[in-house]
Amino acid sequence: MKPASLSEGRRGPAQIWNSAPQLAQTPIISLNTLVPRGARVVVIAPHPGDEVLACGGLLQLLSTQEHPLQLISITDGSASHPGSQVWPASRLSVVRPQESAEALRRLGMPLHSLKWIRGGFCDDALAAREQPMSQFIARYLQPGDVVFTTWRNDGNDDHDAVGRASAKACSLVGAQLYELPIWAWHWPARESAVMPWQRARKVRLDAWTVARKLHAAHAYASQLVGDPQIGLPPMLAQILLERMREPYEILFT
Fold it and tell me: Which of 186, 217, 181 minimizes the C-alpha distance to 202?
């Protein structure tokens, strides 16, 4: 499945995030139901920034409840600008983790106590490394953890592979898994039936939480500019930022 063009704004072609009728009927889930008291929260991001795009609001809410937090960045995101001389992989491998640290600071995350694991797997090549990736993830999980990661059918090869590997690791260890779509929101509206709406739950966000999430997304300067010299559009296109303004985040149980 391919996402719709991300160069369009709200007035462009209808996409799932801004037109699916199921969104209004999605049940709300409370934080206490989502994450039991005392449970550790683990967020598994295929690339730096996916933690903000997927659940930047949820991360803020959970941090206020003093849950132990662990972030696993599977790759360094260095393949986001293929062919670019302005943003070569050698530069991005340094810049993108720095952008993530700034984004987490903007979210108000407790960086002094946040355990941050960097996997070092090759960006844009995770499907071929699914089994070792699953073993790597399991090494850092504990029974009773509540794990958030990308949906295994998100439509991006790396996102899908991390979703599958995380599911295997959680099943092995005895952790609770929740999956979050990112690119799937930007499929054409006609594709909305393939979303597992029966598993969908909505986490409400207030205006302040949404604003901080957007502020955090803008820490990813490398993803906001692309490379016009080779016709490479920004990864964080305007329509994706528009979607992040919604007063909720949706996950699949």
Answer: 181
